[in-house]
Amino acid sequence: MSLTGAYDDDNIFAKILRGEMPCVKVFEDDVALAFMDIFPQSRGHTLVIPKGVRARNFLDLPPETVGPYLARVQRVAQAVTTALSPDGVVVLQFNGAPAGQTVFHLHFHVIPRWEGEAMKGHGAAPKADVAELQALAARIAAAL
Ligand code: 5GP
């Protein structure tokens, strides 16, 4: 999908927001939902998505919602860092398929990094064990 086009209400993250698909939840309020990436590029890879907006990407996000949403992204990145003590943390998002986006509801990735540990490729990581994700989510949630 290019940068232009209609929001698809049946994208995976819209279904997660409606409770039609499961997720391993880390955080939720009226602005954002954070949950574990099911194909994590590193241990603790977390996604933060905005609620109440039909935004495919960052360019679509109504300006008045940018600040509150990014505050949640920052809060989750801080909690991931506190909980897992990485040496670094990647915070990024992709806009449009040519840029690497595969799910077309806006999301920021929070990917902790450790010295000497390679990050798995975007779209190339194996599916995680749900019990392991639940344990990580509990640690991150406790640090919020
Ligand atoms: P994008 O490629 O759009 O930047 O990122 C989409 C992310 O969503 C990827 O990191 C991918 O692993 C993750 N993902 C795809 N399907 C699911 C799913 O059903 N559940 C969860 N938790 N993550 C998903």
Protein described:
- The protein has about 140 residues and is an alpha+beta fold.
- The chain has a single domain (about 10-140), classed as HIT family, subunit A (2-Layer Sandwich), CATH 3.30.428.
- The protein is built from 3 helices and 5 strands.
- Strands 1-2-3-5-4 form a 5-stranded antiparallel β-sheet.
- The protein is globular, with a radius of gyration of 14 Å.
- It starts with 11 loop residues before the first helix and ends with a helix.
- Guanosine-5'-monophosphate binds near residues 23, 39, 47 and 100.
Considering the protein shown, what is the CATH homologous superfamily? HIT-like
Mean pLDDT over the full residue set: 96
Q: Sketch the topology as an H/E string, one letter per element.
A: HEEEHEEH
Listed once per kind, the bound small molecules are: guanosine-5'-monophosphate
Instruction: Profile the largest sheet.
Output: 5 strands, antiparallel
Radius of gyration computed on alpha carbons? 14 Å
CA-to-CA gap between the ends?
34 Å
* Structural class by sheet pairing and helices: alpha+beta
Number of strands: 5
Supply database-style keywords.
144 residues; alpha+beta; HIT family, subunit A; 5-stranded antiparallel beta sheet; 3 helices; 5 strands; globular; binds guanosine-5'-monophosphate
What's a quick, concise take on this entry?
With 144 residues, the protein is of the alpha+beta class. It is 28% helix and 17% strand.
Topology:
Blueprint: H1 12-17, E1 25-28, E2 32-36, E3 46-50, H2 63-84, E4 88-92, E5 108-113, H3 130-142
This protein binds guanosine-5'-monophosphate.
Guanosine-5'-monophosphate is lined by residues 12, 23, 35-39, 47, 94, 100-103.
